[in-house]
């Protein structure tokens, strides 16, 4: 179990791949996208 092991988190980091042990971190939508700034300006 180490850098050469395909099934471990450390092995995935070493290879630069993703999988069940090391899922991709999804980008959260920014605050500007959640609240449409242009829509808010029209409401006033």
UniProtKB/TrEMBL annotation:
Residues 1-13 have a biased composition (Basic residues). It comes from the Bacteria. NCBIfam families: ribo_THX. The keyword Mitochondrion does not apply. The lineage of its organism: Bacteria, Pseudomonadati, Bacteroidota, Flavobacteriia, Flavobacteriales. Residues 1-44 are annotated as: Disordered. Keywords: Ribonucleoprotein, Ribosomal protein. One of its GO terms (cellular component) is ribosome. This is RPS31 30S ribosomal protein S31. It comes from Algibacter luteus. InterPro entries: Ribosomal_bTHX, Ribosomal_bTHX/bTHXc/bTHXm. Belongs to the bacterial ribosomal protein bTHX family.
């Amino acid at each position: 179990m180490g850098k050469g092991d395909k099934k471990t988190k450390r092995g995935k980091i070493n290879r630069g791949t993703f999988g069940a042990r090391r899922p991709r971190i999804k980008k959260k939508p920014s605050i500007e996208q959640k609240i449409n700034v242009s829509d808010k300006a029209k409401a006033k």
